[in-house]
Inverse folding.
């Protein structure tokens, strides 16, 4: 089966009208959209999605931010898509993200307690399959 990754356009991206721009970059790179759905997160879903960050200082603000509006959940597919999307997304810190990347071109530091960095992308095959099962239980 082709490799899959979970991409989230976070509430800041949806609010700013950048959902289409993120989808455009995924498709322009040559990856396939296997699922696209506008969702509202829940505290329970985020606790599972962000289990590895529980207890970190930015965890509370992160969950609050992710509950602040709708999220566009996307499954993207293609050879190397997990690393490929992370390279399209750029560095976690939007100030450090290179121009040409989604965060480098479209996100900035707002001086808030959490990085409002527009997108999430799974970081390994294991987390991709785990996260896809959480956000798209029917896939
Ligand atoms: P994401 O890839 O969704 O995974 C965890 C998120 O936590 C990350 O994107 C950022 O939004 C946020 N984050 C990660 N590290 C930090 C940090 N050091 N300070 C604030 N927010 C962070």
């Amino acid at each position: 089966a082709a490799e899959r990754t979970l991409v989230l356009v976070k509430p800041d991206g949806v609010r700013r009208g950048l959902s289409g721009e993120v989808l455009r970059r995924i498709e322009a790179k040559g990856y396939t959209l296997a699922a696209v759905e506008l969702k509202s997160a829940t505290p329970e879903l985020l606790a599972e999605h962000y289990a590895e960050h529980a207890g970190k200082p930015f965890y509370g603000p992160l969950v609050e931010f992710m509950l602040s509006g709708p999220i566009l959940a996307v499954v993207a597919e293609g050879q190397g898509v997990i690393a490929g999307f992370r390279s399209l997304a750029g560095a976690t810190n939007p100030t450090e993200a290179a121009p040409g990347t989604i965060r480098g071109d479209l996100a900035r530091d707002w001086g808030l307690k959490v990085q409002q960095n527009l997108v999430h992308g799974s970081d390994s095959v294991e987390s991709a399959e785990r996260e896809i099962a959480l956000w798209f239980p029917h896939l």
User: Anything to note?
Assistant: The chain has a mean pLDDT of 97. Helices lie at 11-15, 19-28, 43-49, 59-66, 81-89, 102-106, 125-135.
